[in-house]
Amino acid sequence: MEAKETERGNAVEAVRAKAGKYLTFILGHEEYGFEILKVREIMGVIEITNLPQTPNYVKGVINLRGIVIPIIDLRLKFGFSPREYDKSTCIIVVKHGDGLMGVVVDTVQEVLDIAAENMDNAPSFGGGVKTDFILAMGKVKGKVKILLDIDKVLEAAAGALEAATAAMA
Length: 169
Hints:
Distance between the termini: 57 Å
CATH architecture: Beta Barrel
Order of helices and strands: HEEEEEHEEEEEEH
Number of strands: 11
Number of helices: 3
CATH superfamily: CheA-289, Domain 4
Shape: globular
Strand order of the largest sheet: 8-1-2-11-10-9
Helix content: 10-25%
Largest sheet: 6 strands, mixed
């Protein structure tokens, strides 16, 4: 019994160590966030060059001041229905590995400083539901923000882009 309590206490401390600043945004009707230190730029949607033989959530690449950056649509990555891009749609450019990737979201909200006491682990849904990409749950003003581990969210997209690039070579 004591070992389980110690394990749970360690998990709570690990989540609370992630307290800090998060860029929050909307996908559908839910609110999400990325660690602000991973964010390099926020921009409106510009022309995206499509890449063949990639999953539907890989939108293609953009040329950002001479740097080619892969773009994924987070709405499609999470299995939500597609939505037309409009003036509120944004690309969040984030650091991923040694490079940058762009993530399309419905709209960017704000930067929040989430205190340790307002952080919880992702809920457990059992073995069939994958939640390892959720960094924590932030509780702010009576709402829950789903705080994402952007590196884990982008792992599969990066692999798909590498495969498409290799197929074109």
